[in-house]
């Protein structure tokens, strides 16, 4: 059965939103964009009580679901994928402001990739079909031709999969050569200075955490807190960005003291070794917030790991704090990736 969308003026407004841009200026297929559009159509149909089998087809992105989506486009109830994509790119407008923090731009680009359902670079990078889809996505973004487009491409040239970074950089250079003005952060994005790293280890070897810290010149430091679960294959169970890495370190130190875990100061090269091993394994988030965190922050983590030096420096164990007895139990706190769960 083909899902039915009631056709009245209010439906058209709700489905179209505030998209702008050319209708068919992009290149190649629109697999990633259409997949995201199907998610929106799924939510609309679900709110209107569509049968479960129709909703399942939307979730599975079946051929019949894609055909239905394209019929909505043909009937004018949805914008073309190219025009829809240009509307999504408008989210980069706030980062055009002078003095915008490069970290904010990177996080926005990661969120953009997650919104479109783009897998993080890594194990999936060997998938030729995915690489081609990413390169086509870059060409479709370039076709929007706005300053927001240029900002998005500059950011994707930093956090996207390697197969797409080169394409994004080349596309951005073409737009800049055409006369579009680059954002003020373009020279610094992707190049923060490496600072401290730390973490704690479950004595049984089941889980460990790593917090790596970075700083852009003139900006407050930021950190990435990672939970690795060896009981689930050694991949990332959670990954979050922190705007207060010093506080995150103190909180993790307290958690380690409270639960008798070994807390370490990690030389950046050791942190890189630990994270590279974890990134070589499939991610293993379980809870919905962990799934969302890994989706949104994993691209940035991979980029930051590339900045850490290589080497075999030895971590330094930090003795338990004398204040450990007064620490609030970790189960009642939420300071980053779940340290013991």
- Helix content bin: 40-55%
Distance between the termini: 43 Å
Cross-sheet strand order for the largest sheet = 4-3-2-1-5-6
Q: Count every helix, treating DSSP H or I runs of 4 or more residues as helices.
A: 12
Q: How many distinct folded domains?
A: 3
User: Order of helices and strands, N to C?
Assistant: HHHHHHHHHEEEEHEHHE
Using only CA atoms, what is the Rg? 22 Å
Model regions low in confidence, pLDDT < 50 over at least 5 residues: 1-21, 122-126, 323-336
Number of strands: 6
3D architecture notes:
By secondary structure, the chain is α+β, with helices and mostly antiparallel strands. It has three domains: 77 residues, no CATH class; 87 residues, no CATH class; 140 residues, no CATH class. Helices cover 47% and strands 12% of the residues. It has twelve helices and six strands. It has a six-stranded antiparallel β-sheet, with helices on both faces. Strand 2 and strand 3 form a beta hairpin. Helix 2 runs antiparallel to helix 3 and helix 6 crosses helix 8. The N terminus is likely disordered.
How is the topology of this model organized?
Elements: H1 9-16, H2 31-47, H3 52-60, H4 63-74, H5 81-89, H6 102-115, H7 128-142, H8 147-159, H9 162-177, E1 193-201, E2 207-215, E3 222-229, E4 235-242, H10 245-259, E5 262-266, H11 268-279, H12 288-307, E6 316-318
Antiparallel strand pairs: 1-2, 1-5, 2-3, 3-4, 5-6
